[in-house]
Design goal:
By secondary structure, this protein is mainly alpha-helical. The chain has eight helices and no strands. The chain has one domain. α3 runs antiparallel to α4, α6 runs antiparallel to α8 and α7 packs antiparallel against α8.
Length: 200
């Protein structure tokens, strides 16, 4: 078990690992938006960075589903995220490789975000102000559903800067919220008496 000095209770390392993954996705997409797709594609391996990372995160979500879940609804949610990440990553890899020709395959990222946001909302059984984890799940769910407009627009306008930057920002915000997660910590000074022992 990895322990970071000064953090009590221990950090949510599974959330932090995936937060790091989403942060990488954001950085790859920001880099492509800043330099432009033509410059980004001058090194062919760079085009595989964000789709490959997305697919790998989906693969790594399966062990999380198997070993870090405590209820059926959590298992279904984690399984949904695993499939959404893998399908979106695979579709983007197929487009980069040239195996898929239609830009309509990009809509898998839109569907993946909608499925992920819905799963976040459905699997959180407590209200917004129950604890920090509940607040973050609700915030993440509604944010991801709202932000799914960016990959939808990107499907129709793949070279437009705004949907690309919006999708990169979506991944960055997801990363920040996952880094903030704590199972039983107060939110805005509120903490449910049923939540357990409060953590800082």
């Amino acid at each position: 078990m990895i322990v970071v000095a000064g953090i009590e209770p221990h950090a949510e390392f599974v959330h932090w690992w995936f937060a790091t993954g989403f942060l990488l996705l954001a950085l790859f997409m920001y880099a492509e938006v800043i330099v432009g797709p033509e410059v980004w594609a001058r090194r062919p391996w760079r085009r595989y960075l964000w789709p490959g990372t997305c697919f790998l995160m989906g693969v790594l979500m399966w062990p999380v589903m198997a070993f870090y879940t405590n209820s059926m609804i959590h298992m279904v949610a984690h399984g949904s995220w695993a499939q959404a990440l893998m399908i979106a990553g695979a579709a983007e890899l197929g487009l980069v490789r040239g195996k898929l020709q239609s830009q309509w395959w990009r809509i898998t990222t839109f569907v993946g975000l909608v499925v992920s946001g819905t799963a976040l909302l459905v699997h959180e059984q407590n209200g917004w102000f129950y604890a920090r984890a509940a607040f973050l799940h609700h915030t993440l769910g509604w944010f991801v559903i709202g932000a799914s407009v960016f990959p939808l627009v990107r499907t129709f306008r793949p070279r437009s800067v705004i949907p690309g930057a919006g999708l990169a920002t979506t991944f960055a915000v997801i990363a920040v919220l996952l880094f903030c997660d704590r199972d039983v910590a107060p939110i805005f000074g509120h903490f449910s008496q049923f939540a357990g022992v409060p953590h800082r």
